[in-house]
Q: What sequence folds into this?
Protein backbone atom coordinates (compact mmCIF):
# COMPACT_ATOMS: atom_id res chain seq x y z
CA UNK A 1 0.00 0.00 0.00
CA UNK A 2 1.23 3.46 -0.82
CA UNK A 3 2.17 5.56 2.20
CA UNK A 4 0.65 8.96 2.82
CA UNK A 5 4.07 10.66 3.07
CA UNK A 6 5.23 9.09 -0.23
CA UNK A 7 2.11 10.25 -2.04
CA UNK A 8 2.34 13.77 -0.62
CA UNK A 9 6.01 14.19 -1.48
CA UNK A 10 5.61 12.63 -4.93
CA UNK A 11 2.63 14.83 -5.79
CA UNK A 12 4.36 17.97 -4.47
CA UNK A 13 7.52 17.41 -6.52
CA UNK A 14 5.59 16.45 -9.64
CA UNK A 15 6.82 12.84 -9.83
CA UNK A 16 3.33 11.55 -9.01
CA UNK A 17 -0.01 12.75 -10.33
CA UNK A 18 -2.77 13.23 -7.76
CA UNK A 19 -5.29 12.18 -10.39
CA UNK A 20 -3.47 8.90 -11.00
CA UNK A 21 -3.26 8.26 -7.24
CA UNK A 22 -6.99 8.85 -6.84
CA UNK A 23 -7.75 6.54 -9.80
CA UNK A 24 -5.65 3.76 -8.24
CA UNK A 25 -7.63 4.01 -5.00
CA UNK A 26 -10.99 4.22 -6.82
CA UNK A 27 -9.99 1.11 -8.79
CA UNK A 28 -9.37 -0.81 -5.54
CA UNK A 29 -12.74 0.42 -4.25
CA UNK A 30 -14.37 -0.87 -7.47
CA UNK A 31 -12.87 -4.30 -6.97
CA UNK A 32 -13.54 -4.88 -3.27
CA UNK A 33 -15.96 -2.37 -1.78
CA UNK A 34 -19.01 -4.49 -2.58
CA UNK A 35 -17.76 -7.18 -0.20
CA UNK A 36 -16.18 -4.89 2.44
CA UNK A 37 -18.74 -2.04 2.69
CA UNK A 38 -16.28 0.42 4.22
CA UNK A 39 -18.17 3.42 2.83
CA UNK A 40 -21.60 4.95 3.18
CA UNK A 41 -20.68 7.19 0.25
CA UNK A 42 -17.77 7.27 -2.21
CA UNK A 43 -17.28 10.82 -3.47
CA UNK A 44 -15.53 9.78 -6.68
CA UNK A 45 -16.57 12.74 -8.86
CA UNK A 46 -15.53 15.39 -6.36
CA UNK A 47 -12.30 13.47 -5.59
CA UNK A 48 -11.39 13.52 -9.30
CA UNK A 49 -12.07 17.27 -9.52
CA UNK A 50 -10.04 17.97 -6.38
CA UNK A 51 -7.14 15.82 -7.62
CA UNK A 52 -7.09 17.63 -10.97
CA UNK A 53 -6.92 20.93 -9.12
CA UNK A 54 -3.95 19.76 -7.01
CA UNK A 55 -2.17 18.62 -10.18
CA UNK A 56 -2.87 21.99 -11.84
CA UNK A 57 -1.52 23.81 -8.78
CA UNK A 58 1.69 21.76 -8.83
CA UNK A 59 2.10 22.37 -12.56
CA UNK A 60 1.66 26.12 -12.20
CA UNK A 61 4.25 26.22 -9.42
CA UNK A 62 1.80 27.02 -6.60
CA UNK A 63 2.77 25.81 -3.15
CA UNK A 64 0.72 22.76 -2.15
CA UNK A 65 0.02 21.45 1.36
CA UNK A 66 1.47 18.64 3.47
CA UNK A 67 -1.19 16.19 2.27
CA UNK A 68 -1.19 17.13 -1.43
CA UNK A 69 -3.05 14.51 -3.44
CA UNK A 70 -3.51 12.10 -0.52
CA UNK A 71 -6.85 10.23 -0.71
CA UNK A 72 -8.41 10.31 2.77
CA UNK A 73 -11.66 8.74 3.96
CA UNK A 74 -13.71 10.51 6.63
CA UNK A 75 -15.98 8.83 9.17
CA UNK A 76 -19.59 9.60 8.36
CA UNK A 77 -20.13 11.46 11.65
CA UNK A 78 -18.02 14.43 10.54
CA UNK A 79 -19.81 17.22 8.71
CA UNK A 80 -19.02 17.77 5.05
CA UNK A 81 -20.83 20.75 3.53
CA UNK A 82 -23.37 19.70 0.92
CA UNK A 83 -22.30 16.05 1.17
CA UNK A 84 -24.56 13.56 2.94
CA UNK A 85 -23.56 12.91 6.57
CA UNK A 86 -25.62 10.16 8.17
CA UNK A 87 -23.86 8.83 11.30
CA UNK A 88 -25.10 5.50 9.85
CA UNK A 89 -28.53 6.36 11.24
CA UNK A 90 -31.88 6.41 9.50
CA UNK A 91 -32.73 9.59 11.37
CA UNK A 92 -30.04 11.53 9.47
CA UNK A 93 -30.24 9.70 6.15
CA UNK A 94 -30.16 12.30 3.38
CA UNK A 95 -28.90 15.14 5.58
CA UNK A 96 -26.44 17.49 3.89
CA UNK A 97 -24.69 19.66 6.50
CA UNK A 98 -24.50 23.42 5.84
CA UNK A 99 -20.89 23.55 7.03
CA UNK A 100 -17.61 21.61 7.16
CA UNK A 101 -16.09 20.16 10.31
CA UNK A 102 -12.81 21.91 11.23
CA UNK A 103 -10.87 18.72 10.47
CA UNK A 104 -12.40 18.61 6.99
CA UNK A 105 -11.43 22.25 6.40
CA UNK A 106 -7.89 21.44 7.54
CA UNK A 107 -7.64 18.36 5.31
CA UNK A 108 -8.76 20.37 2.28
CA UNK A 109 -6.39 23.24 3.08
CA UNK A 110 -3.52 20.72 3.22
CA UNK A 111 -4.38 19.42 -0.26
CA UNK A 112 -5.93 16.10 0.83
CA UNK A 113 -8.54 14.50 -1.41
CA UNK A 114 -11.64 13.34 0.46
CA UNK A 115 -12.56 10.07 -1.18
CA UNK A 116 -15.66 9.13 0.80
CA UNK A 117 -17.59 8.89 4.04
CA UNK A 118 -17.05 5.71 6.03
CA UNK A 119 -19.48 3.40 7.80
CA UNK A 120 -19.79 3.28 11.60
CA UNK A 121 -21.93 1.91 14.37
CA UNK A 122 -24.95 4.22 14.50
CA UNK A 123 -23.88 7.49 16.18
CA UNK A 124 -20.55 5.77 16.99
CA UNK A 125 -22.21 3.48 19.54
CA UNK A 126 -20.71 0.04 19.17
CA UNK A 127 -17.56 -2.02 18.76
CA UNK A 128 -18.20 -3.93 15.53
CA UNK A 129 -20.16 -1.74 13.02
CA UNK A 130 -22.99 -4.24 13.44
CA UNK A 131 -25.10 -1.34 14.74
CA UNK A 132 -24.95 0.57 11.44
CA UNK A 133 -28.42 1.16 9.99
CA UNK A 134 -26.89 0.49 6.56
CA UNK A 135 -25.29 -2.90 7.27
CA UNK A 136 -21.95 -3.91 8.77
CA UNK A 137 -18.44 -3.37 7.40
CA UNK A 138 -16.36 -6.55 6.91
CA UNK A 139 -12.80 -7.01 8.10
CA UNK A 140 -10.55 -6.96 5.00
CA UNK A 141 -8.34 -9.68 6.55
CA UNK A 142 -11.29 -12.09 6.90
CA UNK A 143 -14.75 -11.03 5.80
CA UNK A 144 -16.45 -13.42 8.25
CA UNK A 145 -15.10 -11.20 11.05
CA UNK A 146 -15.92 -7.71 12.27
CA UNK A 147 -13.58 -4.78 11.60
CA UNK A 148 -14.20 -3.46 15.13
CA UNK A 149 -15.98 -0.23 15.83
CA UNK A 150 -17.32 2.19 15.93
CA UNK A 151 -14.92 3.56 13.26
CA UNK A 152 -14.87 0.17 11.49
CA UNK A 153 -15.36 1.67 8.03
CA UNK A 154 -12.40 4.03 8.48
CA UNK A 155 -10.14 1.18 9.68
CA UNK A 156 -11.24 -1.14 6.88
CA UNK A 157 -10.81 1.58 4.23
CA UNK A 158 -7.12 1.91 5.15
CA UNK A 159 -6.55 -1.84 5.58
CA UNK A 160 -8.10 -2.54 2.15
CA UNK A 161 -6.13 0.23 0.41
CA UNK A 162 -9.25 2.25 -0.43
CA UNK A 163 -7.64 5.33 1.12
CA UNK A 164 -4.09 6.18 2.18
CA UNK A 165 -5.46 7.32 5.54
CA UNK A 166 -8.74 8.04 7.25
CA UNK A 167 -10.23 9.90 10.18
CA UNK A 168 -12.24 8.30 12.94
CA UNK A 169 -13.61 9.38 16.29
CA UNK A 170 -12.90 7.72 19.62
CA UNK A 171 -15.21 7.99 22.64
CA UNK A 172 -14.28 4.72 24.38
CA UNK A 173 -11.91 3.06 21.90
CA UNK A 174 -13.64 3.62 18.57
CA UNK A 175 -10.37 4.41 16.76
CA UNK A 176 -7.93 2.14 18.58
CA UNK A 177 -9.98 -1.07 18.73
CA UNK A 178 -10.82 -1.17 14.98
CA UNK A 179 -7.21 -0.19 14.19
CA UNK A 180 -6.04 -3.22 16.17
CA UNK A 181 -8.59 -5.55 14.59
CA UNK A 182 -7.75 -4.39 11.04
CA UNK A 183 -3.96 -4.24 11.48
CA UNK A 184 -3.47 -0.50 11.02
CA UNK A 185 -2.27 2.38 13.20
CA UNK A 186 -4.97 4.33 15.06
CA UNK A 187 -4.50 7.34 17.32
CA UNK A 188 -6.74 8.94 19.92
CA UNK A 189 -5.07 12.27 20.76
CA UNK A 190 -5.32 14.12 24.08
CA UNK A 191 -8.85 15.47 24.58
CA UNK A 192 -8.83 18.98 23.12
CA UNK A 193 -5.87 18.56 20.73
CA UNK A 194 -8.10 18.08 17.66
CA UNK A 195 -11.16 20.30 17.23
CA UNK A 196 -14.53 18.59 17.63
CA UNK A 197 -16.33 21.35 15.68
CA UNK A 198 -18.47 19.56 13.13
CA UNK A 199 -18.05 16.13 14.73
CA UNK A 200 -21.56 14.93 15.51
CA UNK A 201 -21.53 14.71 19.30
CA UNK A 202 -21.90 11.38 21.09
CA UNK A 203 -20.38 12.01 24.55
CA UNK A 204 -18.88 15.48 24.52
CA UNK A 205 -16.44 15.07 27.42
CA UNK A 206 -14.97 11.90 25.86
CA UNK A 207 -15.14 12.30 22.04
CA UNK A 208 -11.94 12.97 20.13
CA UNK A 209 -11.03 12.76 16.42
CA UNK A 210 -7.88 11.00 15.26
CA UNK A 211 -6.15 9.33 12.30
CA UNK A 212 -5.94 5.79 10.87
CA UNK A 213 -2.87 5.11 8.75
CA UNK A 214 -0.66 2.29 7.47
CA UNK A 215 2.28 3.31 9.63
CA UNK A 216 3.39 5.51 12.51
CA UNK A 217 5.04 8.22 10.39
CA UNK A 218 1.84 8.70 8.38
CA UNK A 219 -0.13 8.97 11.63
CA UNK A 220 2.25 11.61 13.01
CA UNK A 221 2.07 13.57 9.74
CA UNK A 222 -1.72 13.50 9.58
CA UNK A 223 -2.15 14.31 13.27
CA UNK A 224 0.11 17.35 12.92
CA UNK A 225 -2.21 18.63 10.17
CA UNK A 226 -5.53 18.15 11.98
CA UNK A 227 -4.51 19.28 15.48
CA UNK A 228 -4.24 22.79 16.91
CA UNK A 229 -6.43 25.27 18.70
CA UNK A 230 -9.85 26.04 17.20
CA UNK A 231 -11.94 28.95 18.53
CA UNK A 232 -15.04 27.14 17.25
CA UNK A 233 -14.56 24.37 19.86
CA UNK A 234 -14.67 25.74 23.41
CA UNK A 235 -12.91 22.60 24.73
CA UNK A 236 -10.01 22.99 22.29
CA UNK A 237 -6.68 23.35 24.11
CA UNK A 238 -5.19 26.79 23.39
CA UNK A 239 -1.81 25.48 22.21
CA UNK A 240 -0.22 24.99 18.80
CA UNK A 241 -0.19 21.54 17.18
CA UNK A 242 2.53 19.28 18.65
CA UNK A 243 5.61 18.39 16.61
CA UNK A 244 5.52 14.62 16.18
CA UNK A 245 7.38 13.57 13.03
CA UNK A 246 10.55 15.12 14.50
CA UNK A 247 10.65 12.61 17.40
CA UNK A 248 10.10 9.36 15.48
CA UNK A 249 13.80 8.46 15.23
CA UNK A 250 14.60 9.34 18.84
CA UNK A 251 14.36 5.79 20.12
CA UNK A 252 13.30 4.77 23.61
CA UNK A 253 16.65 4.48 25.41
CA UNK A 254 16.17 5.62 29.00
CA UNK A 255 12.38 5.75 28.74
CA UNK A 256 10.28 4.15 31.46
CA UNK A 257 7.42 2.01 30.17
CA UNK A 258 4.63 0.97 32.55
CA UNK A 259 3.37 -2.60 32.74
CA UNK A 260 -0.03 -2.76 34.46
CA UNK A 261 0.06 -5.63 36.95
CA UNK A 262 -3.63 -5.45 37.83
CA UNK A 263 -5.00 -5.39 34.26
CA UNK A 264 -8.71 -6.32 34.01
CA UNK A 265 -9.17 -10.03 33.33
CA UNK A 266 -10.52 -11.58 30.16
CA UNK A 267 -7.68 -10.92 27.71
CA UNK A 268 -6.93 -13.80 25.32
CA UNK A 269 -3.55 -15.55 25.62
CA UNK A 270 -2.47 -14.78 22.03
CA UNK A 271 -2.91 -11.05 22.66
CA UNK A 272 -1.01 -11.18 25.98
CA UNK A 273 1.81 -13.05 24.23
CA UNK A 274 2.18 -10.25 21.68
CA UNK A 275 2.16 -7.70 24.51
CA UNK A 276 5.05 -9.54 26.18
CA UNK A 277 7.02 -9.48 22.91
CA UNK A 278 6.39 -5.74 22.73
CA UNK A 279 7.83 -5.28 26.22
CA UNK A 280 10.85 -7.40 25.19
CA UNK A 281 11.39 -5.26 22.10
CA UNK A 282 11.30 -2.03 24.08
CA UNK A 283 13.64 -3.48 26.71
CA UNK A 284 16.10 -4.48 23.97
CA UNK A 285 15.92 -0.94 22.63
CA UNK A 286 17.03 0.46 25.98
CA UNK A 287 13.76 1.20 27.77
CA UNK A 288 13.09 0.20 31.37
CA UNK A 289 9.90 -1.72 32.10
CA UNK A 290 8.30 -0.63 35.38
CA UNK A 291 5.43 -2.47 37.11
CA UNK A 292 2.53 -0.17 37.98
CA UNK A 293 -0.93 -0.56 39.45
CA UNK A 294 -4.16 1.10 38.28
CA UNK A 295 -6.58 -0.29 40.89
CA UNK A 296 -9.61 1.75 39.81
CA UNK A 297 -9.63 0.82 36.13
CA UNK A 298 -11.58 -2.31 37.01
CA UNK A 299 -14.50 0.12 37.45
CA UNK A 300 -13.99 1.81 34.10
CA UNK A 301 -16.85 0.04 32.31
CA UNK A 302 -19.33 1.13 34.95
CA UNK A 303 -18.15 4.73 34.93
CA UNK A 304 -18.07 4.85 31.13
CA UNK A 305 -21.42 3.18 30.52
CA UNK A 306 -23.08 5.64 32.87
CA UNK A 307 -21.27 8.81 31.74
CA UNK A 308 -21.26 8.21 27.96
CA UNK A 309 -24.98 7.30 27.71
CA UNK A 310 -25.87 10.21 30.03
CA UNK A 311 -24.09 12.66 27.73
CA UNK A 312 -25.49 10.88 24.67
CA UNK A 313 -29.08 11.07 25.91
CA UNK A 314 -28.64 14.82 26.16
CA UNK A 315 -26.76 15.24 22.86
CA UNK A 316 -29.21 13.10 20.90
CA UNK A 317 -32.20 15.10 22.15
CA UNK A 318 -31.58 17.35 19.13
CA UNK A 319 -32.87 14.67 16.72
CA UNK A 320 -36.49 15.61 17.01
CA UNK A 321 -37.63 15.97 13.42
CA UNK A 322 -37.68 19.77 13.52
CA UNK A 323 -34.52 21.33 12.10
CA UNK A 324 -32.81 18.53 10.18
CA UNK A 325 -32.99 14.82 9.57
CA UNK A 326 -36.13 12.84 9.06
CA UNK A 327 -39.58 13.31 10.56
CA UNK A 328 -42.51 10.98 11.13
CA UNK A 329 -45.62 13.15 10.99
CA UNK A 330 -48.11 13.11 13.86
CA UNK A 331 -51.02 15.21 15.09
CA UNK A 332 -49.12 17.11 17.78
CA UNK A 333 -45.55 18.06 18.56
CA UNK A 334 -44.82 15.55 21.31
CA UNK A 335 -46.24 12.65 19.33
CA UNK A 336 -44.14 13.78 16.34
CA UNK A 337 -40.98 13.78 18.47
CA UNK A 338 -41.64 10.30 19.82
CA UNK A 339 -42.70 8.79 16.47
CA UNK A 340 -39.68 10.33 14.71
CA UNK A 341 -37.21 9.06 17.30
CA UNK A 342 -38.84 5.63 17.57
CA UNK A 343 -38.56 5.13 13.79
CA UNK A 344 -35.20 6.87 13.32
CA UNK A 345 -32.99 5.33 16.02
CA UNK A 346 -31.71 1.76 16.09
CA UNK A 347 -31.79 -0.60 19.06
CA UNK A 348 -28.38 0.21 20.57
CA UNK A 349 -28.93 3.96 20.32
CA UNK A 350 -32.30 3.63 22.06
CA UNK A 351 -30.71 1.45 24.73
CA UNK A 352 -28.07 4.09 25.46
CA UNK A 353 -30.57 6.95 25.43
CA UNK A 354 -32.70 5.01 27.90
CA UNK A 355 -29.74 4.15 30.13
CA UNK A 356 -28.53 7.75 30.07
CA UNK A 357 -31.95 9.25 30.69
CA UNK A 358 -32.45 6.87 33.59
CA UNK A 359 -29.02 7.64 35.09
CA UNK A 360 -29.78 11.38 34.93
CA UNK A 361 -33.40 11.25 36.10
CA UNK A 362 -34.62 12.56 39.44
CA UNK A 363 -34.01 10.05 42.22
CA UNK A 364 -31.26 8.17 40.36
CA UNK A 365 -28.81 10.94 39.50
CA UNK A 366 -26.75 10.66 42.69
CA UNK A 367 -26.80 6.86 42.72
CA UNK A 368 -25.58 6.50 39.14
CA UNK A 369 -24.30 9.54 37.24
CA UNK A 370 -22.98 11.36 40.31
CA UNK A 371 -21.09 8.28 41.47
CA UNK A 372 -19.73 7.61 37.98
CA UNK A 373 -18.19 11.10 37.87
CA UNK A 374 -16.40 10.35 41.14
CA UNK A 375 -15.11 7.03 39.83
CA UNK A 376 -13.86 8.92 36.79
CA UNK A 377 -11.78 11.04 39.18
CA UNK A 378 -10.37 7.90 40.86
CA UNK A 379 -9.28 6.50 37.49
CA UNK A 380 -7.69 9.81 36.54
CA UNK A 381 -5.88 9.91 39.91
CA UNK A 382 -4.59 6.35 39.36
CA UNK A 383 -3.02 7.44 36.08
CA UNK A 384 -1.55 10.57 37.67
CA UNK A 385 0.18 8.41 40.30
CA UNK A 386 1.42 5.95 37.69
CA UNK A 387 2.86 8.68 35.47
CA UNK A 388 5.08 9.82 38.34
CA UNK A 389 7.18 6.71 37.72
CA UNK A 390 6.67 6.01 33.99
CA UNK A 391 6.63 7.98 30.71
CA UNK A 392 4.18 5.75 28.86
CA UNK A 393 2.13 2.62 29.58
CA UNK A 394 1.72 -0.42 27.34
CA UNK A 395 -1.45 -2.55 27.34
CA UNK A 396 -3.38 -4.66 24.85
CA UNK A 397 -5.69 -2.59 22.64
CA UNK A 398 -8.45 -5.19 22.43
CA UNK A 399 -8.90 -8.32 24.60
CA UNK A 400 -9.08 -10.50 21.47
CA UNK A 401 -8.48 -10.47 17.73
CA UNK A 402 -11.43 -9.66 15.43
CA UNK A 403 -14.44 -11.80 16.32
CA UNK A 404 -17.08 -13.31 14.06
CA UNK A 405 -20.26 -11.48 13.10
CA UNK A 406 -23.15 -12.09 15.47
CA UNK A 407 -21.02 -13.53 18.25
CA UNK A 408 -21.71 -10.67 20.69
CA UNK A 409 -24.86 -8.99 19.34
CA UNK A 410 -27.26 -10.64 21.81
CA UNK A 411 -25.35 -9.53 24.88
CA UNK A 412 -24.66 -5.78 25.21
CA UNK A 413 -22.30 -6.30 28.16
CA UNK A 414 -20.13 -8.77 26.23
CA UNK A 415 -19.83 -6.19 23.45
CA UNK A 416 -19.01 -3.45 25.97
CA UNK A 417 -16.11 -5.56 27.32
CA UNK A 418 -14.33 -5.06 23.97
CA UNK A 419 -13.48 -1.57 25.22
CA UNK A 420 -12.11 -2.47 28.64
CA UNK A 421 -8.51 -1.49 27.76
CA UNK A 422 -9.38 1.59 25.73
CA UNK A 423 -12.02 3.28 27.92
CA UNK A 424 -9.73 4.37 30.78
CA UNK A 425 -7.81 6.85 28.61
CA UNK A 426 -11.02 8.50 27.38
CA UNK A 427 -12.17 8.95 30.96
CA UNK A 428 -8.81 10.53 31.84
CA UNK A 429 -8.67 12.56 28.58
CA UNK A 430 -5.23 11.17 27.76
CA UNK A 431 -3.74 10.22 24.38
CA UNK A 432 -3.35 6.58 23.36
CA UNK A 433 -2.65 4.76 20.11
CA UNK A 434 -2.79 1.25 18.74
CA UNK A 435 0.17 -0.10 16.77
CA UNK A 436 0.01 -3.39 14.83
CA UNK A 437 2.29 -5.95 16.47
CA UNK A 438 2.09 -9.27 14.66
CA UNK A 439 -0.80 -11.68 14.50
CA UNK A 440 -2.68 -13.88 16.95
CA UNK A 441 -5.43 -16.49 16.70
CA UNK A 442 -6.70 -17.25 13.18
CA UNK A 443 -3.72 -15.25 11.80
CA UNK A 444 -5.63 -12.06 12.57
CA UNK A 445 -3.79 -8.81 13.45
CA UNK A 446 -3.03 -7.90 17.06
CA UNK A 447 -2.51 -4.32 18.23
CA UNK A 448 -0.67 -3.09 21.29
CA UNK A 449 -1.73 0.14 22.89
CA UNK A 450 0.65 2.91 23.95
CA UNK A 451 -0.78 5.28 26.57
CA UNK A 452 0.65 8.62 27.67
CA UNK A 453 -0.38 11.46 30.00
CA UNK A 454 -2.16 14.65 28.85
CA UNK A 455 -0.24 16.18 25.92
CA UNK A 456 2.26 13.31 26.06
CA UNK A 457 1.94 12.65 22.31
CA UNK A 458 5.68 12.91 21.69
CA UNK A 459 6.58 10.17 24.20
CA UNK A 460 3.73 8.06 22.83
CA UNK A 461 4.96 8.39 19.23
CA UNK A 462 8.56 7.57 20.20
CA UNK A 463 7.40 4.27 21.69
CA UNK A 464 5.04 3.58 18.79
CA UNK A 465 7.83 4.15 16.26
CA UNK A 466 10.12 1.78 18.19
CA UNK A 467 7.43 -0.92 18.27
CA UNK A 468 6.96 -0.55 14.53
CA UNK A 469 10.71 -0.99 13.92
CA UNK A 470 10.62 -4.16 16.04
CA UNK A 471 7.50 -5.72 14.55
CA UNK B 1 -27.95 1.57 45.11
CA UNK B 2 -31.52 1.64 43.79
CA UNK B 3 -33.96 -1.28 43.55
CA UNK B 4 -34.31 -3.41 40.42
CA UNK B 5 -35.69 -1.42 37.49
CA UNK B 6 -39.35 -2.14 36.68
CA UNK B 7 -41.09 -2.07 33.32
CA UNK B 8 -43.20 0.79 34.66
CA UNK B 9 -40.03 2.84 35.25
CA UNK B 10 -38.76 1.95 31.78
CA UNK B 11 -41.97 3.24 30.23
CA UNK B 12 -41.75 6.43 32.27
CA UNK B 13 -38.11 6.98 31.26
CA UNK B 14 -38.98 6.32 27.61
CA UNK B 15 -41.54 9.13 27.84
CA UNK B 16 -38.87 11.45 29.29
CA UNK B 17 -36.56 10.45 26.43
CA UNK B 18 -39.30 11.05 23.83
CA UNK B 19 -39.17 7.46 22.63
CA UNK B 20 -42.42 5.60 21.99
CA UNK B 21 -41.21 2.07 22.70
CA UNK B 22 -43.45 -0.82 21.70
CA UNK B 23 -44.40 -3.12 24.58
CA UNK B 24 -42.01 -5.79 23.23
CA UNK B 25 -39.20 -3.24 23.17
CA UNK B 26 -40.05 -2.07 26.70
CA UNK B 27 -39.96 -5.64 27.98
CA UNK B 28 -36.60 -6.42 26.35
CA UNK B 29 -35.21 -3.06 27.47
CA UNK B 30 -36.27 -3.72 31.07
CA UNK B 31 -34.34 -6.96 31.27
CA UNK B 32 -31.27 -5.56 29.48
CA UNK B 33 -31.15 -2.42 31.62
CA UNK B 34 -31.63 -4.52 34.76
CA UNK B 35 -28.64 -6.66 33.74
CA UNK B 36 -26.47 -3.61 33.14
CA UNK B 37 -27.50 -1.85 36.34
CA UNK B 38 -26.70 -5.05 38.23
CA UNK B 39 -23.19 -5.00 36.75
CA UNK B 40 -22.84 -1.31 37.65
CA UNK B 41 -23.31 -2.17 41.33
CA UNK B 42 -19.58 -2.92 41.45
CA UNK B 43 -18.93 0.74 42.32
CA UNK B 44 -21.14 0.49 45.41
CA UNK B 45 -18.12 -1.03 47.17
CA UNK B 46 -16.12 2.20 46.77
CA UNK B 47 -15.94 4.90 49.40
CA UNK B 48 -16.58 8.02 47.34
CA UNK B 49 -17.56 10.45 50.08
CA UNK B 50 -14.47 12.66 49.73
CA UNK B 51 -13.96 12.31 45.98
CA UNK B 52 -14.48 15.37 43.80
CA UNK B 53 -16.62 14.56 40.72
CA UNK B 54 -14.74 14.89 37.40
CA UNK B 55 -16.86 16.48 34.70
CA UNK B 56 -14.23 17.29 32.09
CA UNK B 57 -10.74 16.07 31.30
CA UNK B 58 -8.95 19.37 30.69
CA UNK B 59 -9.38 22.32 33.06
CA UNK B 60 -10.60 25.15 30.81
CA UNK B 61 -12.94 27.74 32.30
CA UNK B 62 -15.39 30.25 30.86
CA UNK B 63 -14.22 30.06 27.28
CA UNK B 64 -15.74 33.04 25.49
CA UNK B 65 -15.19 34.44 22.05
CA UNK B 66 -14.81 38.12 21.24
CA UNK B 67 -18.12 39.74 20.34
CA UNK B 68 -17.29 40.52 16.72
CA UNK B 69 -19.26 40.01 13.54
CA UNK B 70 -18.45 36.85 11.61
CA UNK B 71 -20.14 34.94 8.80
CA UNK B 72 -22.84 32.54 9.99
CA UNK B 73 -24.63 29.68 8.29
CA UNK B 74 -26.57 30.37 5.10
CA UNK B 75 -30.24 30.60 6.04
CA UNK B 76 -31.59 28.99 2.88
CA UNK B 77 -29.05 26.19 3.10
CA UNK B 78 -30.05 25.48 6.71
CA UNK B 79 -33.81 25.64 6.06
CA UNK B 80 -33.31 23.49 2.97
CA UNK B 81 -32.39 20.58 5.25
CA UNK B 82 -35.45 20.87 7.50
CA UNK B 83 -38.35 18.39 7.20
CA UNK B 84 -40.89 21.26 6.91
CA UNK B 85 -40.57 25.05 6.66
CA UNK B 86 -42.87 27.99 6.14
CA UNK B 87 -41.98 31.62 5.41
CA UNK B 88 -38.34 31.20 6.41
CA UNK B 89 -39.12 29.31 9.61
CA UNK B 90 -39.27 25.70 10.80
CA UNK B 91 -42.81 24.34 10.69
CA UNK B 92 -43.98 21.95 13.43
CA UNK B 93 -47.31 20.30 14.32
CA UNK B 94 -49.59 21.99 16.92
CA UNK B 95 -47.87 22.38 20.29
CA UNK B 96 -50.91 23.07 22.48
CA UNK B 97 -54.27 21.46 23.03
CA UNK B 98 -52.89 17.92 23.39
CA UNK B 99 -51.86 15.78 26.35
CA UNK B 100 -48.13 15.80 27.00
A:
Amino acid sequence: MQKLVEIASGVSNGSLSASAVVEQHLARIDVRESEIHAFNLVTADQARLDAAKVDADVKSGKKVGALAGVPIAVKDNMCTRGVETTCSSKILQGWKPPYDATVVTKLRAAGAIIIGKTNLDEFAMGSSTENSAFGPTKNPHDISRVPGGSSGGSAAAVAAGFAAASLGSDTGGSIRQPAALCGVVGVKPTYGVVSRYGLVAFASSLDQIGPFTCDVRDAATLLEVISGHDPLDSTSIPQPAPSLVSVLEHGVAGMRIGRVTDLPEGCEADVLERLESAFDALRSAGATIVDIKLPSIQYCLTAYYLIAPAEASSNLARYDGVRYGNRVDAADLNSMYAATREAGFGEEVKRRIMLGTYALSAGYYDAYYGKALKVRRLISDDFARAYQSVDTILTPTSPSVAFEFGSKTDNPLAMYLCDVFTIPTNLAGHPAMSVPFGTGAHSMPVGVQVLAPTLGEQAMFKVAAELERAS
Amino acid sequence: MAEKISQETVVKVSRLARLSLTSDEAEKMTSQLAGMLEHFRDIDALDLADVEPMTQPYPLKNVLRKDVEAPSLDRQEVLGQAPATESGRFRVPPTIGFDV
